[in-house]
Amino acid sequence: MTAEFTGWHVLAEFGGVDADLCDDLERLESALRESLIAAGVTICDVVHKKFDPQGVTVLALLSESHASIHTYPESGDIFVDVFTCGSIGAGATKAVEMLRDKLSPKDVRMKVIQRGHGAQKIEEPVGAGLTRIWDLHDVIVDTNTPFQHMVIARTEQGISLFSDDDRQSTEFSQLTYHEAMMVPAFVLAEKLDNVLIIGSGEGVASQMSVAAGATHVDHVDIDQLEVELCAEHLPYGYTTEELAAAVAGEGPVTVHYADGWDFLANAQQAGTRYDVIVIDLPDERVEDAQHNRLYESEFLSRCRALLAPGGVLSAQAGCATMWRNETLERSWKRFHEQFGTVVHYGSDEHEWSFLFGLVDAIEDPVPGMVDRLATLPYRAETIDGRALVRGAIEPHALRATAQ
Q1: pTM of the model
Q2: For residue range 8-27, what is the model confidence (pLDDT) as tens digits?
Q3: Helix or strand or coil: residue 131?
Q4: Which of 71, 76, 65, 64 is nearest to 31 (CA)?
Q5: Based on the number of CB atoms within 10 Å of its own CB, is 328 exposed (0-12), middle (13-18) or buried (19 or more)?
Q6: Considering 9, 22, 35, 65, which one is annotated as catalytic?
Q7: pLDDT tens, 199-224?
C-alpha cells in the first residue's frame, strides 16, 4: 500500500423497505447493477443467493473493489456495503445514494469511511461513549515501545504526539499545556533551584524550568525510546543534540531513564530535595493501569517527602468536564490529604486541570503568585495575572466535594 492510496467504504442500512422487494432477487440485482454503472464503477462479475424461506444476497466484484446487499424481508431491512478505490473515489457514495432512491427505504443510515495510508485516523477516547477523531495527514512514527503504542504524525494541529491513542501534545497547543503545568508552580514555589520532572518526555518542561531560573533539573522517564523519538521528530522540546548532552549530564538538565517510583526512593535515601516536582504522565485511567500507581497517595507522599521548604508538587490531574472528571476528583481528594495548600489551575487548552500542592497552609496564595509572575525570568506567553486568578477557581464539582 502506498502513501497515496485511498478508498471510500460506504456502509448503509435501509429500513422500512417493502417486504416483497426485499425478497425479489431480480429487482435487487438489477437495482444494484444500475446504481453501480451510473456511479461510474466497473462491474467484473455478479453472484447472488436466494435463501429459503426468504432473504437475498447479491455480491458484485468491481474493478475498484466490491459491492454487496443483503436483505431481511421479515423486518424490511437491507444492508449495503460498497468499497471503491483509485480514481473513482467517492463513487461508492454515489452508488449507495442511487440504490437508496431505487429501493425507497423509509429509514436510512449511512457511514462513509475513508481508507488507506492517506486516511489514517486516531480515535481518542474522551469519555464514556465519546471519541475524538484525529485525521493523520502524514504518519512519521508508529511504533510500540516497551511501554506504550506511540504515534507522531502531522495533523491540523501541527506535528502531534499520541500515546495509546491519547493525544499527549501538539505543535499548536503544547505551549499552552506546558505553561499551565509549569508557570503556576514557578510562581508558587519559595525558590527555584532544583527541579524534578517525572514523565514529560518531550523535554519542554525541563527547558522551561531552566528558563525560569532553575540551576539543575532531573528529568526522569522510563521510556527511553519515546524520549529519543520525540527529540528526533518533534519541533518542540529537546533536539537530539540537547538530549544527548542531558543524558551525559552536561549542563543544567540531566536525563535519567528510570522508573519514577525507584528514582524517588533513591533520591530520598540520598537526601536530595527539590523546589518543584512535576508529574506529567499519560492520564490516570479509571480502569487499572500500570502507571496509575504514580498518581496514587503513596507516590504523592514520596514526592512530598522530597520537597524543600516552600517546595511545590505539580501534577497533570485530569479533565474537569462532567463526562470525564472522575480521575480529577480522585486527585483533588488525594492532594488535600497530602498538602496544607492546594491550588487548582484550569488550562485554556481544552479542559485540562493541574493541581499544585505545598506542605504548609497558605490562606490565599494567588495574589502572591500574580505578583511574582511579573518578575519571573521565564516570560509566559499564554498566562498572565488574570489567567492565574481565573484558573485558580476550581470547578464546582471539586468545591462541592470539599464541602
Answers
A1: 0.79
A2: 899 999 999 999 999 999 99
A3: strand
A4: 71
A5: buried
A6: 65
A7: 999 999 999 999 999 999 999 999 99
| Average pLDDT of span 313-335 | 89
Closest CA to 350 of 203, 163, 170, 123: 170
Residue of 9, 22, 35, 85 marked active site? 85
209 is catalytic: no
Instruction: Measure the CA–CA gap between 63 and 42, rounded to whole angstroms.
Output: 5
Mean pLDDT over the full length of the chain: 91
What's at 338, amino acid-wise?
Q
Residue 1 pLDDT grade (very low, low, confident, very high; cuts 50, 70, 90): very low
- Give the H or E element holding residue 346: strand 341-346
Distance (Å, rounded) from C-alpha 131 to C-alpha 98? 31
Q: Which amino acid is at 212?
A: A
Which of 31, 23, 24 has its CA nearest to residue 82?
Answer: 31
Choice among 70, 178, 256, 344 that is catalytic: 70
Segment 65-92 mean pLDDT: 89
Is 137 a known active-site residue?
Answer: no
**85: annotated active-site residue:** yes
Query: 496544607: which residue's cell?
Result: 340
For residue 90, pLDDT over 80 is answered with no
Q: Cα-flanking dihedrals φ and ψ of residue 169, to 5°?
A: -165, 155
The residue assigned the cell 510562581 is 187
